[in-house]
């Protein structure tokens, strides 16, 4: 998995020369694919602490259509070659399935729902985080082509987002709320001038390089005056709502029950500060 500095499309993007020089200097932080080796051991590795006395969960592999089986074999070979997984003989076993991405490609997911029920939930770009030593067998997955355990954090583990968030906060601790905002694998770098932005980007890239974390270039945008982040539009020091969220609220059917009203308020209340007309409507609802 890679870390986008801003998860927006960058087609047709014009990048200033001073920013391009930074990108060229740190081109090794934006490889075409992750290095074919395990990430380093860090202070933050993903631990899987089970409920005391829990029996290791094991299920059979899910059935798949021929095209999915071909994709499964391909992705397993890639994970084996990168040493992210290894053959396993463990009492654990979670079936695998695919989730379609926005670009139509398939993401391999492990159905850890049974394991997650037995995992102590702490607080609830993953392949860049190691599984804590001794916990690898708990990640075992079963497929038509064999049984494997993960050496890196897999999608679907209950505390994986918390682990990744802790890692990112640790890496960028000295820059948080000064010129960096991080949410899971999204990093926003904000500045008041282009020169300042260049210096801020250099510091962020240097942190990524020092910690052997990598960026997916095609998911990055640089030197933007307007950006979308967590459902909001940020532009020239102002925060607004994404058009899709406005349409969803505007076109919401009139609630006919308390539960329907709660559903509407759940969508609208977090955004009430961004719209005076919405504040009025919510006041009338209350």
UniProtKB/TrEMBL annotation:
Name of the protein in its database record: Reverse transcriptase
Source organism per UniProt: Cucumis melo var. makuwa
MF annotations from Gene Ontology: RNA-directed DNA polymerase activity
Domain Reverse transcriptase: 119-234
InterPro entries (UniProt xref): DNA/RNA_pol_sf, Rev_trsase/Diguanyl_cyclase, RNA-dir_DNA_polymerase, RT_dom
Superkingdom classification of source: Eukaryota
This protein's UniProt keywords: Nucleotidyltransferase, RNA-directed DNA polymerase, Transferase
Positions of transmembrane segments: none
CDD domains xrefs: RT_LTR (cd01647)
One Pfam family it belongs to: RVT_1
């Amino acid at each position: 998995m890679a870390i986008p500095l801003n998860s927006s499309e960058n087609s047709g993007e014009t990048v200033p020369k001073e920013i391009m020089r930074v990108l060229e200097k740190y081109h090794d932080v934006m490889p075409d694919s992750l290095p074919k080796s395990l990430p380093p051991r860090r202070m933050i590795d993903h631990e899987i602490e089970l409920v005391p006395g829990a029996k290791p969960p094991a299920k059979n592999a899910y059935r798949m259509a021929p095209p999915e089986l071909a994709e499964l074999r391909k992705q397993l070979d890639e994970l084996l070659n990168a040493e992210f997984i290894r053959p396993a003989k463990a009492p654990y076993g979670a079936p695998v399935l695919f989730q379609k991405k926005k670009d139509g490609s398939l993401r391999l997911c492990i159905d850890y729902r049974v394991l997650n029920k037995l995992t102590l939930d702490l607080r609830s770009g993953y392949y860049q985080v190691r599984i804590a030593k001794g916990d690898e067998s708990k990640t075992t997955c079963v497929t038509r082509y064999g049984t494997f355990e993960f050496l890196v954090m897999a999608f679907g583990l209950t505390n994986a987002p918390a682990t990744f968030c802790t890692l990112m906060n640790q890496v960028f601790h000295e820059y948080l709320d000064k010129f960096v905002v991080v949410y899971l694998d999204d990093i926003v770098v904000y500045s008041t001038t282009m020169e300042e932005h260049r210096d801020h980007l250099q510091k962020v890239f240097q942190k990524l390089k020092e910690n052997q974390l990598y960026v997916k270039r095609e998911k990055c945008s640089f030197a933007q005056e307007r950006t979308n982040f967590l459902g909001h539009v940020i532009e020239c020091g102002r925060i607004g709502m994404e058009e899709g969220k406005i349409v969803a609220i505007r076109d919401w059917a009139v609630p006919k029950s308390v539960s329907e009203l709660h559903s509407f308020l759940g969508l609208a209340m977090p955004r009430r500060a961004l719209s005076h007309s919405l504040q009025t409507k919510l006041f009338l609802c209350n």
